[in-house]
Amino acid sequence: MNTQTGERLFDLTRDDDQRMNQDTMQRFAANEIRLVAKDADEAGATPKGFYNKTAELGLTLLPIPEALGGAGMARSPVSNALNAEDLAWGDMALSLGTLTPQAFVNTLLDQGSDAQRERFLPRFCEGTFVSATTALMEPRATFDPMEPQCTANAIDGSYRLNGNKCMVPLGESAELTMVIAQLDEEGPAAFIVEGTPEGMTVKREEHMGLRTLELATLTFDNVQLPAEALLGGRSFDLQRFVNLSRIGLCALAVGCCQGVLDYVTEYVNERVAFGEPISNRQAVAFMVADMATELEAMRLMTWRAASRAEQGLDFHEQAYLAKVACAEHAMKIGTDGVQLLGGHGFCREHPVESWYRNLRAIAIMDGVASV
Known about the structure:
alpha+beta; seven-stranded mixed sheet; 15% strand
């Protein structure tokens, strides 16, 4: 605390638990994610058994109360953002799939009712991967995350869901889906949809990036939901949900961009042209320096937003600015990474082209990876 101004200081020091988690996440990213990412991207599918391995990290288990079978640790947006950053160094798509159930759990802990927590959270404490996701985005050019057009109408003690959602991670396999919709005239609300009820259809999407994420379009045609499907009553805070999701997305972008920077730094130092490493050329050195500068700005903005969220301070502005900065600079870092490899950057034998494709999604995604 600054004793003169009364403001809390922005501490960048990781605590003991965060340092231990960093070792675990970085080791998993290097040994389990990075090694399979290329083949997974080529196949457009997650390697068999991969997500069950991620369950061993215990990411969904940690914040769940002990009474429900969890570890009972305090939810930490900072630690969650750091974990996302470390995992995304391996591959952003596989990391986002790994973290998608955690986002569901975080939202349920944050805004769900006691009855909903008691019903759903024990599933995430059994040591196996539970495919759970959130559905916010909609397939229209004027989409505003704060004004979903998917609707829910209260009818005779239940709800009727209509509309479309797109770019839903793990959409094909999700056992639990948190759907954001307009509830009558009351504003946005969230509903927990189990499995694939009558009237709901799922269609796989194909995109230039995030090919292993099972992105899907969900269509709801008069889907009947019970009264208890409404998340936490009629007071869902959509802005808070979006802000926390933006921090998670930014953390993923930072991790992936760190992977790009590490790879191209080694490449330009080893690549020899005209008798010397190409890093000796000012144009190359300046581009790498710009990438490092932009990445550090992204990281600090993301950490600041996460820190304010953890302290219970208002963090809307910080989350928004971090998302704007990461959307712009992540795309530039991905582009520069390809450029620095020259012709090799266009070849699929090097991973920078897949990182470039994945990073372009940061600017258009919303409502996933909530910390």
